[in-house]
């Protein structure tokens, strides 16, 4: 049993007869009244996002999890297939429990949180950033670089990302997986 002071990003808790993963939290200490923790939680079964506030010292039922490295193999409709990099066993996961499936390319190694009580996979954590190749984008207008102007670009996984005007087709770019935003162009 944990308390609201133990809340952190990625913590899995049992709440309303379901298991939720904390995706955002904020400890608030107002000048008047008791402190509380404002959270944004994602259900690991349905993918539904819930906003909730826990008062300071509130008891929460945390779920013990193990992390394992899995390699993304392929997708089949809404099912995504992964292989454990240690024992080569395979699992299938629904699209709803993945945070940013549109940024995963085949062969990508991700971290899967597994419930220690029943061995069921709870969620998939992507690496902090991925490097993807731009497959199509409009050519940039020469000289229009004074502002932070962006244009849409399609990357090799099919995701659409806003990129600066100097990015061309064939460029490899680093993308922040948490926000789904362009970070930098990779040098050859």
UniProtKB/TrEMBL annotation:
Give residue ranges for domain Elongation factor P C-terminal: 130-185
Q: Where in the cell is it found?
A: Cytoplasm
Q: Which UniProt keywords apply?
A: Cytoplasm, Elongation factor, Protein biosynthesis
Could you tell me the Gene Ontology terms of the biological process aspect for this record? peptide biosynthetic process
Which GO terms fall under molecular function for this chain's record? translation elongation factor activity
In terms of Gene3D superfamilies, this protein maps to:
2.30.30.30, Nucleic acid-binding proteins
GO terms for cellular component: cytosol
Task: Outline the extent of the Translation elongation factor P/YeiP central domain.
Answer: 67-122
Pathway in which this enzyme or protein is active: Protein biosynthesis; polypeptide chain elongation
Say where the protein is mainly found: cytoplasm
Identify the InterPro entries for this entry: Elong-fact-P_C, NA-bd_OB-fold, Rib_uL2_dom2, Transl_elong_fac_P/YeiP, Transl_elong_KOW-like, Transl_elong_P/YeiP_cen, Transl_elong_P/YeiP_CS, Transl_elongation_fac_P
What family does this chain come from, according to its entry? Belongs to the elongation factor P family.
| Its job | Involved in peptide bond synthesis. Stimulates efficient translation and peptide-bond synthesis on native or reconstituted 70S ribosomes in vitro. Probably functions indirectly by altering the affinity of the ribosome for aminoacyl-tRNA, thus increasing their reactivity as acceptors for peptidyl transferase.
In Swiss-Prot or TrEMBL terms, this protein is called Elongation factor P
| Taxonomic lineage from the root | Bacteria, Pseudomonadati, Bacteroidota, Flavobacteriia, Flavobacteriales
């Amino acid at each position: 049993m944990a308390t609201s002071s133990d809340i952190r990003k990625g913590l899995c808790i049992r709440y309303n007869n379901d298991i939720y993963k904390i995706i955002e939290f904020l400890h608030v200490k107002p000048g008047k009244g008791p402190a509380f923790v404002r959270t944004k939680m994602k259900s690991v079964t349905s993918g539904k996002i819930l906003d909730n506030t826990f008062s300071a010292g509130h008891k929460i039922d945390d779920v013990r999890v193990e992390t394992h490295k899995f390699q993304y193999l392929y997708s089949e409709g809404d099912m995504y297939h992964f292989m454990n990099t240690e024992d080569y066993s395979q699992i299938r996961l629904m699209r709803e429990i993945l945070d940013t499936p549109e940024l995963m390319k085949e062969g990508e190694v991700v971290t899967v949180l597994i419930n220690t009580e029943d061995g069921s996979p709870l969620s998939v954590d992507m690496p902090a950033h991925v490097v993807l190749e731009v497959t199509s984008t409009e050519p940039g207008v020469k000289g229009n670089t004074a502002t932070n102007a962006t244009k849409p670009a399609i990357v090799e996984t099919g995701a659409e990302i806003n990129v600066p005007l100097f990015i061309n087709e064939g460029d490899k770019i680093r993308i922040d997986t948490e926000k789904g935003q362009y970070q930098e162009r990779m040098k050859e």
